Amino acid sequence: MRGGMGTVDDDVVTVPPALWARHGAPLPMQRPHRHDDIELNFVESGQLEYLFGGTHVRVGPGEIAVFWGATPHRLTEPVAHDGEVSWVHIPLATALSWSLPAEGLAVLLRSTPLVLDAEVVRCDLAAQFATWQADLLEEDATAALLEVQALVRRVLHHADAASTGEDVSGGGPEQMSTAVAIARYVAEHFREPISAADVAAATHLNPTYAMTLFRQTVGCTIGTYLTRCRVAEAQRLLIGTSMTTVDVAHAAGFGSQSTFYSHFTRTCGRAPGAYRAAMQHDARSRG
């Protein structure tokens, strides 16, 4: 999907952040990958079928998707090779310098993309993405980055913040940067036996301050965000591997089987074994 060397952690490829653009047919992905970028997809024709953790996401013709690439994701088969799709990656550090509103930040930090009808942004996206593909390679990409920022703001403006079900009271650029540092640490270390207090310590913050700031900025607690990452990883492993549920629980960072079953069943509405069976049945039906 993109250039650049990456590292492999188990079966997930970690790709370094980069300013990057591409246009053309979707390419199959053998492994899920993650990257510390904000990614924009615009589908002119065909469609994209993603697996984010264990969540299937479809981006159809005339739709645009925006997401933070920290959650392992991949395009699934079958892929419409005759489709026309544009991609842009913006390093998260660059996006943070834009001082996006707290509600927008909360949307971007979710583990699944925001997908909208491209008509809401009221501009010729095909022409814009074609221009950016050339301009982002120039030594001075300032104008292109300003246009990309404007598009991200337009998309986030049309996102229904209430749909998150989370109370976001916001904060300044420094608070946003701190919240993202916390989220980044969780995304990189959730497989390890860490707690919310460990996350605060690793980011050199007072635990009470860290937990309050994160909830005010992102709309959920550090503990909840940690659990979301672990459940998403468990879903991915249940769908994409033959690991036992015991091994899945351990690999996803859950400290015990009882904790795994409790959080997974509460989030997904069914036990891990039943979830795997249902996903396999759905895959056979689609095939």
From TrEMBL:
SUPFAM superfamilies: Homeodomain-like, Regulatory protein AraC. Residues 180-278 form the HTH araC/xylS-type domain. Coiled coil: none annotated. Keywords: DNA-binding, Transcription, Transcription regulation. SMART domains: HTH_ARAC. InterPro entries: AraC_XylS_family_regulators (IPR050204), Cupin_2 (IPR013096), Homeodomain-like_sf (IPR009057), HTH-like (IPR037923), HTH_AraC (IPR018060), RmlC-like_jellyroll (IPR014710). This is AraC family transcriptional regulator. It comes from Bogoriella caseilytica.
